[in-house]
Design a protein that fits this description.
By secondary structure, the chain is of the alpha+beta class. The chain has five helices and 18 strands. It has one domain: 4-Layer Sandwich (Double-stranded beta-helix). It has a seven-stranded mixed β-sheet. A four-stranded antiparallel β-sheet has the order 7-17-9-15, with no helix packed on it. It has a three-stranded antiparallel β-sheet with strand order 11-10-14.
């Protein structure tokens, strides 16, 4: 049976735009299966749908699995935040009464995986653009299959069987710090340095510049050197797609084989995106 949609590549590195499918309407099982396959093949999917409601976004996201609840602690949220469905997190620099209405408000943000600091990181993320600045605030995505394939064999052998520690404190957008001032808000977990994707069975690098603190069991200097090599490969231009947002863009990406980063933008301009995530039943495996 022919697919009910067309695709257009977004870049040589990763990504495809889905054309001709109204994602605000119920989607049949065969089309969902086709979307899952195209998602697996391309890592990142772009849908363009102005004026998508919260209910429509949740229904569409549920096609890909069970939805998780927003991770940000209540302490860092505006009071109106709790009027949203628990599956939503707002990514925004808009402030009301001096307090951001969302999280991760301003500035550049280094490459990171969502919830890599938890035992079972989300397998997918859907992010919908409502307001975007006239310049900047783009999101970069990388292909960590390609990064793993480009890793020297000597490093692959050195990190085989090893885990890395990942830290996040919900406050900063700077490098992971084992001595964060966030105290009990800081979260950390360890996962294999290189993982096997549960759907594709392909190997992917599973570290990122923002949240990965060190490779366990290696001398600190060696850990830093290897991680820097990995970060550089993961962020190599031919492994990256940069998305320039337009209101109504909906992106779905694989959170296990891709990390993402945000480019800087003016604090004088509003930026508002609505995020939900797809849970995983398993911990990442080597």
């Amino acid at each position: 049976m022919a697919r009910k949609f067309d695709t257009r590549p977004l870049s040589p590195a990763l990504g495809a735009e889905i054309i001709g499918l109204d994602v605000t309407q119920p989607i049949d099982d065969d089309t969902i299966a086709d979307l899952v396959q195209v998602w697996s093949d391309n890592i990142l999917l772009l849908f363009r749908k102005p004026d998508m409601t919260q209910e429509e976004q949740l229904r569409f996201a549920s096609c890909f699995g069970r939805l998780g609840e927003r991770p940000a602690p209540k302490k860092w949220r505006n009071e109106d935040y709790d009027k949203l469905d628990p599956a939503f997190m707002l990514v925004s620099n808009i402030r009301e009464n001096g307090k951001p209405i969302g999280t991760l408000p301003d500035g550049e943000m280094m490459f990171h995986h969502d919830t890599i600091y938890k035992p079972k990181p989300h397998i997918g993320t859907l992010l919908y653009a409502i307001e975007v600045p006239s310049k900047g605030g783009n999101t970069k995505f990388n292909n960590l299959y390609k990064a793993y394939d480009a890793l020297p064999d000597s490093i692959k052998e050195r990190v085989k069987g090893r885990t890395a520690n990942h830290i996040y404190d919900y406050v900063t957008i700077s490098k992971a710090n084992r001595k964060s001032q966030a105290g009990d808000l800081r979260e950390n977990w360890t996962h294999p340095v290189c993982i096997t994707h549960p759907r594709s069975e392909r190997k992917a690098l599973y570290v990122d510049r923002l949240m990965t603190a060190r490779i366990d069991g290696l001398p600190e200097e060696e850990s830093e050197d290897i991680l820097e090599t990995m970060f550089d490969l993961a962020e190599r231009p031919d492994h990256v797609y940069e998305h320039e947002w337009t209101p109504g863009d909906l992106l779905l990406w694989d959170n296990l084989c891709s990390a993402h980063a945000r480019t800087d933008f003016s604090t004088d301009e509003r930026r508002l995106l609505r995020r939900c995530q797809i849970e995983s039943d398993d911990t990442p495996r080597e």
